[in-house]
Amino acid sequence: MRLSRYFLPVLKETPAEAQIVSHRLMLRAGMIKQASAGIYSWLPMGFKVLKNIENIVHEEQIRAGHIPMLMPTLQSADLWRESGRYDDYGEEMLRMSDRHGRDMLYGPTNEELITDIFRSHVGSYKDLPLTLYHIQWKFRDEVRPRFGVMRGREFYMKDGYNFDLSKDDALHAYNRHLVSYLRSYERMGLQAIPMRADGGPIGGDYTHEFLVLAETGESEVFYDSAVTDLTFGDREIDYDDHAQCQAILEEFTTRYARTDETHDEAVFADVPEGRRRTARGIEVGQIFYFGTKYSEAMGATVVNDQGDRVPVHMGSHGIGVSRLLGAIIEASHDDKGIIWPEGVTPFHCGIVNLKQGDEEADAACDALYTSLTALGLDPLYDDRNERAGGKFATMDLIGLPWRITVGPRGLKNGVVELTSRRTGESEELPPEQAVEKVAKIYASL
Ligand code: 5CA
To answer: To test the ligand 1 pocket, which listed residue (115, 294, 323) has its Cβ within 8 A of the most ligand atoms?
Structure first.
């Protein structure tokens, strides 16, 4: 993309309404614009990152054997009356009626709708196990929407639902979700720690939240610092292997790590004193096993191999896709702007032309652009007639991990400059080698 033809409405001033750095940077980098309280338009660069995060989530869910689909945002209140949650959910639920006076709502989550789909089409244990998921907009009329996309009213969520014959199988589905979530967050350049949590309005007492440690996080968390040494890395995983998935759950959840809702001082005291940590965290996902809560209330049953009709065991599993943009920025920025991890960056590499209009510099930038694009990369070429300082400031603000700087002086010696946004280190290389190096970095992801 050529910046002169793109829509990147960067703000010079720091918006006064934004209290935390990720919100400020998303506004300044022209990624989002508030439409009304807790509701945002996603401007092109914000939309690009949102889609990159969504793609990682899709790939990892499909790898785990979970099946993508799409349910609507608007739901009929009748289903929620069946589960008993229409009255229970309270003021967070946005309610409305259609022209026929039928009660409708904007879905805050989808347990009821998916259970209705399941009971309409599945009747035998032979069709199990089954895990369906979608990535769809949700609405929760939060009392205090704040921090930009972090606590929105309208937000984008991946929610998945497993249906299993036995508790054991449902716990394996829970483990699969835990593993696939660990992989997803790591691909986004994040460490998200699974912590024992509370079921809230979803229900169930077996649940973990995934937390990214950050001072601006809304949750208070207590953990053994040894949990921060754990990484999933590139180990092979067989999602059908119950024992392997269970071992990973144990590896990542045995040490003390809890949110304030489940925190227990007496148990925490057993953690060696030097490793006890109290901090704040951003909740970027939550997994639940809630047994037969919805299947019993809504008649989601199957006939088992004995010929008996039994309610299925269920769980639901969510990732805050839009919140993740804020969480990633909170975890990865400096005083100049965002530093995107390679896994989610909106453009793979920036090209800065120090002397727009100079025949040689223009030609070298065009050639770089063509080579990067031919390798399947997506560069952002700042081809505006701006001073170098302004171009660098924009690149630093929007946070592309790699920048190639092209100027007449370097070209005389046959080199361009390749700079890492994270370390600030630069090296001079012939243009082909700069392209090769960038391509290699992305090929290794
Ligand atoms: N049905 C279950 C799992 S699918 C569920 O709704 N879980 S949840 O309530 O924990 O939400 C899943 C994730 O959505 C949370 O972990 C959080 O990352 C994100 N989320 C929840 N509320 C908001 C909000 N108001 N703004 C942005 N993201 C949110």
So the answer is: 323
